[in-house]
Design brief:
Blueprint lengths: L2 H15 L4 H15 L5 H9 L8 H14 L2 H13 L5 H17 L2 H18 L4 H11 L10 H10 L3 H7 L1 H22 L10 H27 L4 H20 L4 H34 L2 H12 L3 H18 L2 H12 L2 H5 L3 H15 L7 H9 L4 H7 L1 H16 L2 H4 L4
């Protein structure tokens, strides 16, 4: 590796450790590296703006705004009530309602962090009232939220499609089965834990009237994920078009039917979603500059050869790639990890002979684990801001659910048809 590359990568680590926002650190490091390589500084501006010039990325602001409107408009609360009416009467049912709500809400917002906040603010207090420990209530919320980056729509998959050129439609559809498997696996583990600890040990009566009322009240809310997945599966619209359609649907339901968002508050919801979108896009643009520097410095090729030197077999490669993503995911947010490591790993898919869809979904599941592992597990910090719990205590409770995700990653590798059915 060249001295310039080592210097710039060391500088990036130093900037991150100093507390500078990751987007700024990436931009400064990339610009400094290009200057060291005698590139004109105009190239920095060109690469920065090029980072946002993608039709695929248009889906990000629409899905983020959809999630924000659904949360503020009472749609997420109705989804949670419907999940509770379906399984809440079973042993450990409220915890499993949390699991189901995370999958459904994640299938709308595409953001694990938004899922944690929306579901956690409702479910954690409710679980505590039912006798669940505060730490376990926070842990089940944090652990199940990352399924939002596996099932469609997934913001990390949008970013992956942007840097890899893989079909976003295929990536979205490939995430359906793994997302369902993770949800079912976590529900089974949660049921076992609840039985062992005595949480909701006995059966509560099934309340038909409650079920019918929640179904009636939440039917329109359930329509949002149906529109997204159904529209993509049927080929009616692309994922980017789906983001616009579901936003219009969420606005219509929230403003005209449920009427829980005053027009005065709508502006604030849009502004908050805009800030979230801007932060993600700034990271993407900054990482584009940094990735361009790494490319011209020859770093991806060198690191790729290093990974292949560990093993050039498909299994050895996927283990090495997943390990790299896991370590990076422990310290960086998902978007940054994808933008930094993706250009190194993606070109190796064809060279090693792995199916891009299979490899991508294994990597995504491993990246999802990073959201609930210290020191930078964003979902852990979100639940700790909702209820007073220690991050490390929540992380320990998440271990059984991490094992579920690792098991699903192994299943994807062993049975590739779980994701490749979309291309059959």
């Amino acid at each position: 590796m060249s001295p310039e590359a080592l210097l710039v990568m060391g500088g990036l680590i130093a900037l991150i450790l100093s507390g500078i926002p990751i987007a700024v650190a990436l931009l400064i490091s990339g610009a400094a590296g290009l200057w060291l390589l005698d590139f004109p500084m105009l190239i920095v501006l060109q690469r920065f703006t090029a980072g946002a010039e993608s039709f695929v990325l248009l889906a990000i602001p629409f899905f983020i705004l959809t999630g924000a409107i659904m949360d503020a408009g009472g749609i997420s609360r109705r989804l949670i009530a419907f999940c509770d009416s379906c399984v809440g009467f079973l042993p450990g049912g409220l915890a499993n309602a949390n699991v189901g709500a995370s999958m459904v809400f994640g299938g709308i917002s595409g953001s694990a962090v938004a899922d944690t906040s929306a579901v956690g603010s409702v479910m954690i207090p409710a679980m505590e009232r039912e006798g669940y420990s505060r730490v376990y209530s926070a842990a089940i919320t944090a652990a199940t939220s990352p399924v939002g980056m596996i099932i469609p729509p997934s913001i990390p998959l949008i970013v992956w499609s942007f840097i890899s050129g893989q079909s976003l439609n295929e990536l979205f559809l490939a995430g359906i089965v793994p997302g369902i498997l993770i949800t079912l696996g976590m529900a089974l583990v949660s049921t076992w834990i609840c039985q062992k600890r005595g949480y909701q040990r006995g059966f509560r009566p099934f309340r038909p009237l409650y079920f019918l009322a929640s179904l009636k009240d939440g039917l329109l809310a359930i329509g949002a994920p149906v529109i997204i997945i159904g529209g993509i599966l049927s080929g009616v619209f692309t994922p980017t078009e789906a983001s616009v359609v579901v936003l219009g649907y969420a606005l219509g339901v929230s403003l005209l039917i449920y009427r829980e968002i005053p027009l005065a508050r709508l502006g604030r919801v849009v502004l908050d979603a805009g800030v979230t979108t801007a932060s993600i896009m700034f990271i993407i643009c900054g990482a584009t500059v940094f990735s361009f520097f790494l490319t011209v410095a020859g770093v991806p090729a060198e690191l790729g050869n290093l990974i292949l030197s560990v093993s050039d077999t498909p299994l050895g490669f996927i283990v090495a790639a997943a390990a790299l993503m896991f370590v990076l995911g422990m310290f960086l947010d998902t978007t940054t990890t994808i933008l930094m490591a993706g250009p190194i790993i993606i070109p190796l898919f064809a060279q090693v002979g792995v199916d891009p869809l299979v490899a991508t979904m294994v990597i995504m599941v491993v990246l999802a684990i990073g959201l609930i592992t210290p020191p930078v597990g964003l979902c852990l910090f979100v639940v700790s801001s909702i209820t007073p719990v220690k991050v490390m205590d929540v992380a320990k409770e998440c271990i059984p659910f991490i094992l579920v995700m690792l098991a699903v990653a192994a299943l994807i590798w062993i049975f590739p048809g779980l994701v490749t059915w979309v291309t059959a």
